[in-house]
Write a structure and sequence with these properties.
Distance between the termini: 34 Å
Oligomer: single chain
Structural class: alpha+beta
Strand order of the largest sheet: 10-9-7-16-15-14-13-12
Low-confidence stretches: 1-11, 22-36, 254-259
Order of helices and strands: HHEEEHEEEHEEHHEEEEEEEE
Number of helices: 6
Strand content: 35-45%
Shape: elongated
């Protein structure tokens, strides 16, 4: 039965393509099934892009089967609510208009979303009682150039959004405790391990392994997509807006310390 369902998109012009920015190559059967699982209360519909997609029309085959739907995405395109240009066979997350189900208010290309995404962080000076009320900027200006340049060094944090709702560490690993004696400190790195789309928003989940080695959720961050291109991802969290840049799989050679 699963093989028959997977064959349907190919027969209807909705399969066989790969995204220009997809990170993990062609999806296997488990990935297709995982990407269509919905969480309770999620109104997003999932499926595949079919032949005939344009800036105004989305030809879409729902994961629940049936014939492809033709959805109007003109207003979504104008409002920059189509995240990632759909190609034949790409897995999509779609939010239909509540009043007119022939209109899509938001489209996320889940193939474009997958990949290794990075951003740079800068350190701040640790608080010290002997420094008085001087601001960070004032303290840095008082430092000799060589000292300032040796301390204020950017770091690159990254995550790899993968298939089957997985997220893994990407980039260089900075061991815990190595900065304890440093006069500067870096922002805490979030350790996301899972992801999913919920009502058109991206949910990133932090987990920890229990005594039995099972991953248990410990925290979640929900983000609104602001921009998604083959090279750029911008997410708006509750406390900040964060931009990311993509690196290829070969460039992103970090090792997950929890594997």
């Amino acid at each position: 039965m699963l093989a028959l369902c997977l064959a349907m998109p190919v027969a209807s012009g909705c399969g066989g393509g790969t995204s220009e920015a997809g990170a993990d190559g062609a999806a296997d059967a488990d990935d297709v099934v995982a990407s269509t699982l919905q969480h309770e209360g999620d109104s997003t519909i999932y499926g595949l892009a079919c032949d005939g997609c344009t800036d105004t029309i989305l030809v879409f085959l729902s994961s629940i089967g049936g014939d492809p739907d033709t959805l109007n995405v003109l207003e979504a395109t104008r409002r920059h609510r189509v995240f990632g240009r759909p190609s034949i066979g790409d897995k999509l997350a779609v939010m239909r208009n509540a009043a007119d189900t022939t209109v899509a208010d938001l489209v996320i290309n889940m193939e474009t979303l997958r990949g290794s995404w990075f951003y740079e962080v800068m350190p701040t000076l640790r608080p010290r009682p002997d420094l008085g009320d001087l601001t960070q900027a004032q303290l840095l200006r008082l430092m000799p150039d060589t000292l300032r340049d040796s301390l204020v060094v950017p770091r690159e944090y990254g995550m790899q959004i993968r298939g089957e709702g997985r997220v893994s560490f990407a980039g260089k690993f900075y061991p815990h405790g190595q900065d304890d004696d440093s006069p500067v400190e870096y922002p805490q790195r979030r350790s996301y391990r899972q992801w999913f789309v919920y009502n058109g928003r991206l949910v990133l989940v932090e987990t920890q392994r229990d005594s039995l080695g099972q991953e248990r959720p410990t925290a979640t961050d929900t983000a609104v997509l602001v921009a998604l291109t083959p090279d750029t991802l911008v997410l708006r969290f509750t406390d900040r807006q964060q931009g990311y840049y993509r690196q290829s799989h070969l460039e992103a050679t970090g090792t997950d310390e929890r594997k």
